[in-house]
Give the backbone structure.
Amino acid sequence: MVAPGLELEKYVSVGTNLAENKCGLLITGEFQEEYHGIWRLEMGLTSGNIVGGFIRMPEGQIPGLNDPNTARNSSDPSNTVEVNVEAGKSFTITCQTQYPAGYCWIKGPQGQDITSTDELTVGRCSHAIDNAISTEHSGDWTCNMAHVNGGHEEHLVTKVNVIDKLYQAVNPEITARHGVKTVIACKSVLDYPLQYCRFVRPDGVGLGVTPGMEPSGRYSYEGDGLDHGYCGLAISSVQAVDIGEWKCVSRSRFRTWEAENSDTCVLQTPEISAASVIGLTIGAVLLVSVITGALLVRYRRKRSQQSERAMMVEFST
């Protein structure tokens, strides 16, 4: 930020008069390698608009179409940024070039075609979304921009992930044998730091867990820490009371996540796992079918033998 009278390390304000929309910066001392390249100047007007331009240093030239730092490969991964946003929240698609842009149009993941004309003089293009919806806004948003003097378009991609659940179980289903150790865990999808986390056992007993806690019976904290959005409960020896649906609950330190969030995970033993239940059910059905078939064959055979005996008795008389 440049203001009249600014003197900061190697930077000195020169000829700056915001009332006249003038802004100047002097770099004192040796012009180091880190200063080489394209500089962008932005000025915020009282109207709310932003204007500015670009200059290549140390040459002091305005970058043109053939400047090696203005043209970038559209397939370059560095031209793609990823944005995670909570469902229902607002977010903004913003693209930045190293030259003044003549125009910008944005293509959305559902075929949206949006024209943006704000801040083109500083090479910036943006579009604001008030209410993030996964089915409409998740996917690639592509800014298509070209130099103010024409030329090939540059394509800058923003990959948007609209997240419906901020807090999710790491493994929704866990299979563990009686007497062995297992870990149940949930984490913040956006890596929000957690204020606290707690678990509710299948029988309704609540367990508060935190890193460094003294083990409470068979239970203790395990994981990367609440600061990393991770809530893990280690069970040193799985018992019958642990089998069933667990609920993990947490609250973030961020004001954007003031209410508690929760998710569930099921702890099951190999004997009652879903695959085992399906297998046992199919086996039982097959067994019943086999037994029923055998009884039916036996019944029909017995009826046939009785009929034959009756015919022989009648013939002999």
Summary: Helices lie at 134-137, 274-316. Residues 102 and 149 are 7 Å apart (CA to CA). The chain has three domains: 7-57, 77-163, 167-272. The mean pLDDT is 80.
